[in-house]
TrEMBL record:
Subcellular location per the Swiss-Prot or TrEMBL entry: Cytoplasm
Protein name: 3-dehydroquinate synthase
3-dehydroquinate synthase N-terminal domain residues: 68-179
Known cofactor(s): NAD(+); Co(2+); Zn(2+)
Entry's cofactor comment: Binds 1 divalent metal cation per subunit. Can use either Co(2+) or Zn(2+).
EC number(s) stated in the UniProt entry for this protein: 4.2.3.4
Enzyme class: lyase
Length: 360
């Protein structure tokens, strides 16, 4: 097992990663001094696979687990589902001394975290991500929230977990499409922050595709270390942390326009990264070779790279509604070659639409 710390003063927490560590969750939570009643928030896909061993471990450590099972899918990341979590917490008698375990992918983690942030004005929660995307990205850093019909993640809070427990064994049951979508976030870290990580992914396509546990543990913990470093410097995304939105601006637009669930989040981010690279190339911050290298890597991971066709005005409207848009314009992250970045603020989106070939 590997460990690292997200250093945020009295809100610091440990990330534990390895293979076969899920049965230790009860002992981990006991070390944190958490209260007796725990709501394990999961979904209809993950619950039948992993709720049993998690609940058994928690019970063996002296906790009283409550199962809260949500429907599976981005389309259920809504206020209605959030209210269902609140109902379960109230019915289960959770108090401020209780806690939540988020057992699932990014949707479960975001919603369970937001429920923890707001129930009784805040109770502790532990992230147990079971998808690659959640393990390398959404489980770390404290972003929680739900979608709104008019935009992704428009409602939420920054609320840090008490711990993150990553067992790469859970990836063995992940459908291939979801697994590969998670690799988009791995590539993201490499493109804008770590050229060595980018090169390592390029070298290890074969073991990545067969889900080699040692390679995955190494790559996942490297991503977590990068994100932890960024979050420590900029917890609430007032500056540096915006770099982690590389590929997300157009990616979120794709998810919104196509309808939540049509594209997996990582697939949309892959598309958005290629478009951001085109814009970086247009502005002289990257070369055609850089863009080609990114595109080739994403394609080798079986990820989409082309924007779906929607009217230019539809893209413009969704982009301007993005939570990163301010009076001074829309924040857009560009790659500087492979391993560097810049953040530009665009008042006029015509450049984006033209470079990315968005018309009609």
């Amino acid at each position: 097992m590997e460990t690292l710390t997200v250093g945020l003063g009295d809100r610091s927490y440990t990330i534990r990663g390895g293979s076969g560590i899920l049965p230790g969750i009860g002992a981990f939570c006991r070390e944190l001094g958490l209260g007796r009643i725990v709501a394990v928030v999961t979904n209809t896909t993950v619950g039948p696979l992993y709720y049993g061993p998690v609940a058994d471990s928690l019970a063996a450590a002296g906790f009283s687990p409550l199962r809260v099972e949500l429907p599976d899918g981005e389309e259920f990341k809504t206020s209605a589902t959030l209210n269902a979590i609140y109902d379960a917490l109230i019915d289960g008698g959770l108090t401020r001394d209780s806690f939540i375990v988020a057992l699932g992918g990014g949707v479960v983690g975001d919603m369970a975290g937001f429920a923890a942030a707001t129930y009784l004005r805040g109770i502790p929660f532990v992230q147990v991500p079971t998808t690659l995307l959640a393990q390398v990205d959404s489980s770390v850093g404290g972003k929680t929230g739900i979608n709104h019909p008019r935009g992704k993640n428009l409602i939420g809070a920054f609320y840090q977990p008490r711990a993150v427990i990553i067992d790469v064994e859970t990836l063995t049951t992940l459908p291939e499409r979801e697994y590969l979508a998670g690799m988009a976030e791995v590539v993201k870290y490499g493109v804008v922050l770590d050229p060595l990580l980018f090169a390592e992914v390029e070298r290890n396509i074969a073991p990545i595709l067969v889900r080699d546990r040692d390679v995955l543990t190494r790559i996942i913990m490297a991503c977590c270390a990068i994100k932890a470093s960024v979050v420590e410097k900029d917890e609430r995304e007032s500056g540096l942390r915006a770099v982690l939105n590389y590929g997300h601006t157009l990616g979120h637009a794709v998810e919104t326009l196509a309808g939540y669930g049509t594209y997996l989040h990582g697939e949309a981010v892959a598309i958005g990264m290629v478009q951001a690279a085109k814009l970086a190339e247009h502005r002289g911050e990257a070369t055609a070779d850089d863009t080609g290298r990114l595109r080739a890597l994403l394609e080798s991971l079986k990820l989409p790279v082309e924007l779906p066709v929607f009217a230019a005005e539809a893209y413009r409207e969704v982009l301007l509604r993005d939570k990163k848009a301010r009076d001074t314009g829309l924040s857009f992250v560009l790659n500087n070659g492979i391993g560097g970045f810049s953040i530009v603020r665009l008042r006029d989106l015509s450049e984006v639409l033209d470079v990315c070939g968005i018309g009609g």
